[in-house]
Write a structure and sequence with these properties.
Elements lengths: L1 H31 L2 H12 L1 H24 L10 H33 L3 H5 L5 H32 L5 H26 L5 H32 L9 H27 L8 H24 L4 H20 L8 H4 L6 H7 L6 H27 L9 H32 L7 H26 L15 H10 L7 H27 L8 H14 L15
Helix pairs in contact: 2-6, 3-4, 3-6, 4-6, 4-7, 4-8, 6-7, 6-9, 7-8, 7-9, 9-10, 10-11, 10-14, 11-14, 11-15, 11-16, 14-15, 14-18, 15-16, 15-17, 15-18
Length: 547
């Protein structure tokens, strides 16, 4: 009996030691993980929202498995029912990862703002980036759980014929990326305001937007499934996917760091990192559109200018809402040298520097367009481009640039006027810009309806404040409408006048110089640096310790 007990003990000892090692490894991993990720994942997986959503997902997948197989008559051994079954399962998955996961991310951060519990996180050693990344990681964990539940059903559709495994994998990969991107946008929306009534409005807007995006994703997936594997053999498919990935990565980084900036304390520098990302986006846009223009189609040059103008208009509207005064913390990190101040001042926080940054981006876009056009005329797909198209592109880019500079400058003047009476935020400035553009667009129609109803349908100089119709008019009539000379004189002059009116405030921001750290702050920074990077190896305490 004693011998048998010893043998059993010897057999169980390796298993026990292995289990102990696994427990220690998991404990070590848990300690190294982001604590916000651990907390949020635990709360999310125990919440009623997740249990309800996961239960509905399983019930819907089970129900579609029964109903779909009966409706599509899978018993016919020669049918191809895989695509239909796949779209049914994908609708269930898209609802979970396209609506529930991003909205849960929104509520996780909006709840912290609404319940005033974010202050408890702010006083810990966790940085704003760790907080946002932890909540985003929790959304990814939920996404993977939903995906693991429905993935076997999606793989089952491959056995029903009609759809290939590469197509299934491709759609799932891009769906996961899309869900992560929507979760980052949800986190950004959760940081916009702490007022309950605004949170309710944001919730409604976000849900509607998520439903629309989910419907669009289902439609795109159905089109891809209908096309089949031949779409992978299209020579234009993979460049388009590379462009999509570029857009996703850059705008995901912008949304992520914008959320980080929103919850960063007020005296910190919130602008520089975001402006660097905007500059990278601008470079990627020019690179891809330039490649497409030189190798594919000359029409893409209009898309380059149009999308670039929209990008800089939105980014500029947000940057002009920044607070003009720099904190002492930011001023201690300003560039010192002449070259540093010349090139890096525009990355500093402030509405004036933001206005110049956006205006410079549009001017650079216009000049780059002309350069690409010049190169395309001497080689590539656009070498046979006509002089009329060249003139149209130059007029289109000049007019779009002038409209962006003029409206951003006018909005900045209005924001500065409003700040004399009340404090405005980034999104208050954005709202002012939207109202200004809306007034310039709708105003001519109101005037035309009062003066002459027939003038509404025809473009005239009355629409000179309408940036959309004016640019579209030049795009449609490549031979340039008769109003073009007046547009190309009045609109650039108006942009120049507005820029000059903003120049005194811009010069005031540019005059900010670097200040030295106080002794106490310098000592604290040295202590923090020493704690983060301790000295390696023994410290010599006598001459005989030095080798």
């Amino acid at each position: 009996m004693t011998a048998d007990a010893n043998v059993a003990q010897v057999k169980t000892a390796p298993a026990a030691s292995q289990a102990t090692r696994i427990d220690r490894a998991l404990e070590w991993l848990g300690e190294r993980l982001n604590p916000i990720l651990v907390k949020e994942a635990r709360q999310a997986l125990k919440s009623r929202q997740f249990l309800l959503a996961f239960g509905l997902l399983l019930i819907a997948a089970w129900g579609w498995s029964l109903i779909g197989l009966v409706v599509m008559e899978v018993g016919d051994g020669y049918g191809q029912t895989g695509p239909g079954m796949f779209i049914g399962y994908y609708c269930i998955l898209a609802a979970a990862i396209g609506v529930f996961v991003p909205f849960g991310a929104f509520r996780s951060l909006a709840g912290e703002q609404e319940d005033r519990t974010y202050e408890l996180l702010a006083i810990t050693n966790l940085t704003p980036r760790q907080i946002v990344s932890g909540k985003l990681g929790s959304a990814v964990v939920q996404l993977l759980i939903y995906l693991s539940a429905i993935a076997p059903c999606l793989a089952f559709t491959y056995l029903l014929r009609g759809i290939s495994m590469p197509m299934i994998a491709f759609i799932l990969i891009y769906s996961v990326l899309g869900s992560i991107g929507l979760s980052a946008i949800g986190l950004l929306a959760g940081t916009l305001t702490s007022a309950k009534h605004w949170q309710v409005l944001l919730s409604v807007v976000l849900i509607v937007a998520l439903l629309l995006v989910t419907w669009f994703a289902i439609w795109i997936s159905a089109e891809l499934v209908d096309e089949g594997d031949r779409i992978f053999r299209d020579q234009d498919f993979w460049p388009v996917m590379a462009i999509f990935l570029t857009v996703f990565v850059t705008y995901f980084a912008l949304a992520f760091y914008a959320a980080v900036a929103q919850i960063t304390f007020v005296s910190d520098n919130r602008a520089t990192r975001l402006r660097v990302i905007m500059l990278i986006q601008h470079a990627c846009l020019v690179a891809w559109c330039g490649w497409a223009f030189l190798t594919q189609d000359d029409e893409v040059i209009f898309a380059l200018v149009g999308f670039g103008a929209f990008h800089w208009a939105i980014m500029g509207a947000l940057m002009t809402g920044e607070w003009p005064e720099l904190s002492l913390r930011v001023r201690r990190s300003l560039p010192q040298t002449f070259l540093g101040r010349t090139f890096y001042t525009w990355f500093n926080p402030g509405p004036g520097t933001g206005y110049v940054f956006a205006s410079g981006g549009m001017i650079a876009l216009m000049l780059t367009t002309w350069l690409v056009l010049l190169v395309g005329m001497n080689g590539g797909a656009a070498q046979n481009i006509s002089d009329r198209v060249v003139t149209g592109v130059m007029a289109f880019s000049t007019l779009a640039t002038s409209y962006v500079i003029a409206y951003l400058g006018a909005g900045l003047l209005l924001v500065r006027f409003v700040r004399r009476f009340t404090r405005t935020t980034l999104f208050s400035a954005l709202l002012i810009q939207i109202m200004l553009v809306t007034l310039g667009t709708a105003g001519p129609f109101v005037v035309a309806s009062v003066v002459d109803l027939q003038a509404i349908d025809d473009y005239s100089l009355l629409q000179i404040t309408n940036p959309f119709w004016s640019c579209v008019e030049i795009f449609d009539h490549r031979n340039l409408p008769p109003e073009t000379p007046v547009l190309l004189v009045v609109v650039p002059l108006a942009a120049l006048a507005v820029f000059v009116m903003n120049l005194p405030a811009i010069l005031k921001e540019v005059r900010h110089v670097r200040i030295e750290k106080p002794t106490r702050v310098a000592e604290e920074d040295e202590q923090i640096e020493a704690a983060l990077h301790p000295c390696q190896g023994p410290v010599p305490i006598s001459p005989w310790d030095v080798q």
